[in-house]
Amino acid sequence: MKANRIARSLLRPITSAGTNNSFENCIFDLTGFAAVATGFNLAGSDFTIDGCDFVTGTATNQAGIAITTTAAANRLTVTNSTFRGTIDAGTSTAIKIVGGDGHVIQRNSFIGAYTTTLGAIQNVTTACTNTLILDNTI
């Protein structure tokens, strides 16, 4: 699945349990209403996000998390993307990785006041292996 369109006001997360899916050059506004829990819930392998813009917080509404994976979601690739929040409280973390293997998070920009104990990229519950996090700006 390749997409070149704007996704606005997500009312529920984009969920993917399939393999080899991708989004390229898209804008995802996760602030259509208050407290979107997560914008993406990924359980499948080989999911790629490249060159996308995620709006995770405004003065009115914030998403809790932009992207959440499961331990079965191997080889997530997030590159050349921007996660835009606000400088006050709001988004907990931009990318929440729950285990998995072979992830690449590279050349992204994370803007916002993420929860102090979580940060922009969080690995929780299950340790991930063979993961590359490189050249990101937070």
Identify the strand order in the major beta sheet. 1-4-7-10-13
Cα separation of the termini: 29 Å
Going by helix content, strand content and strand pairing, the class is mainly beta
Give the SSE string.
Answer: EEEEEEEEEEEEEEE
Number of DSSP strand runs: 15
Mean model confidence by pLDDT:
88
Outline, from the CA principal axes? globular
- Report the C-alpha radius of gyration, rounded: 13 Å
List the helices and strands and how they pair.
Elements: E1 6-7, E2 14-16, E3 22-24, E4 27-29, E5 36-42, E6 48-50, E7 53-55, E8 63-69, E9 77-79, E10 82-84, E11 93-97, E12 104-106, E13 109-111, E14 121-123, E15 132-134
Parallel strand pairs: 1-4, 2-5, 3-6, 4-7, 5-8, 6-9, 7-10, 8-11, 9-12, 10-13, 11-14, 12-15
Give a verbal description of the structure.
With about 140 residues, the protein is an all-beta fold. Helices cover about 0% and strands about 40% of the residues. It has no helices and 15 strands. The protein has strands at about 5, 15, 20-25, 25-30, 35-40, 50, 55, 65-70, 75-80, 80-85, 95, 105, 110, 120-125, 130-135. The strands form 3 sheets. The protein has a 5-stranded parallel beta sheet with strand order 1-4-7-10-13, with no helix packed on it. Residues about 1-5 have low confidence and may be disordered.
In brief, what are we looking at here?
The protein has 138 residues and is mostly beta strands. The protein contains no helices and 15 strands. It is globular, with a radius of gyration of 13 Å.
